[in-house]
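Contributing: when you submit paired examples, paste them exactly as shown. First protein:
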Amino acid sequence: MNWVKKLLALVLLCCALGGTQAASALQVTDDRGVTVTLAQPPQRIVSLLPSLTESLCALGACARLVGVDRYSNYPASVRALPQVGGGLDPNVEAVVALHPDVVLLATSSRASQQLEALGLKVVALEPHSYAGVRRVLDKLGQLLALSDAQRVWRVIDVGVSAAAQSLPARARGLRVYFEVNGGPYAAGASSFVGETLTRLGARNIVPAALGPFPKLNPEFVVRADPDVIMVGERSAANLAERPGWAGMRALRERRLCIFDAQQMDVLIRPGPRMPQAARLMAQCLQDKAP
């Protein structure tokens, strides 16, 4: 009977070990609604979206990055990592060659299915709003097995509030047009950029009903006649050449804030540098207020 007891003990031990392994596995449901299962927190990560790269580093996981897209440039340490092309259409062979445990990318990326077909784990996350930023931080926290990923959100929230409190009353209530890039594509009221403007006491001329980042007919902006225009330097050069734009109050009265490329990176990336973005917008409102 001793051998029976030993066999039973061995079976129980195997079950216990199997249960431990199952318990250590983690699952993350991404923004596509796809549930991704990993045996353990990933140690080799490729990030194909700058905001995800920045969020990972803010969560203390910069050292786990082994590759990034060509636009990921902050913090400075990620610039030394292998670049694998654009986020929407990366060099798939280059990604595979890095042997990542997981690839992080935007839901709009066209590479998801191809990477999954090659056996890679893919997690698609793409925040457009404050709620989306909080959700993505939670998902990354689950992926990294962190107990308090929301600490980064708390820093963001406090920083944006501080920027809002710094504004004088005269800088509030201004009607703002924020151009993300030439198209023109704008930041609507429902986007994280629009939500920051709201917290700063500004009024967005692009209503939430049009979506977070709609492509506008330039005549829409002319009819809205904003008090202040916020735009990147790449789009600013030809604003007055757009039909009807030269007559808009913001251009006539030079209420135009032009941001350089580095500033635009800060402004249009939903993640840990949102307080810095709020300060840039607050300074613009203060400078251009009547």
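Second protein:
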Amino acid sequence: MKIKEIAKIVKYAFPKTTPVLIGFFFVGVTWSILMYVKGYSLPWTTLMSTIAYCGSMQYASIILFTSTFNPLYALILSILINIRHIFYGISMLNKYNNMGKSKLFLIFSMCDETFSLLCDADVDESIDKKKYYLAVSILNYLYWIIATTVGSLIAPFISFNLQGIEFVLTALIVVIFFENWLQNRRHYSAIVGIVSSVIAILIFGKDIFIIPAMIIILILITAPYIYKIKKEGKHKNAIK
């Protein structure tokens, strides 16, 4: 890929990832500060962000690092927190098809924010979609690493009260949701997410609603596609 083409794609992708950059900065810095308070400085935070790259689990890992280590509990917690990525992967099968060597990185770098930007991405015809997907994924990945590194560097100089600072993660998700809502005319997936979560909370309670909610979301999201495929199949058979 030529330098001019790379510059063109990055220039196109950067404005679309700006909300993620801003959100990641505050979330990443906050996480690094919390890690520093618990005794983990720059090398550990940067290494974990580079290898793990899972914001919500990285927040949860603070509890694991500061309590008696239980491998089974850590495994179950990781699965429960990141199980939503299974549904992300299913949704992106067609978009990530024939991506070549970059496919492994795209799978590794999938996160809530990247999924939100790529799921219903309306890419200009002059831009290669697959290269755009890669550019967005790389930019978001770098944002997170840089933010957590910056947080580790400034943490030693912070002395004010940090109580409640972890709420910044929730704030980021809300901002990404409304940004996606404003950019897209179709709000089906957003409405499905809200309704499914409310139903799951009412039935199962707020402590264990995530998995049931994801199952409901999967059913409601895939049902129209399955119906469409069956309808097209019947139409083709009728023509034959």
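If you have annotations for the second protein, write them as plain sentences, like these:
DSSP finds eleven helices and no strands in the chain.
The mean pLDDT is 83.
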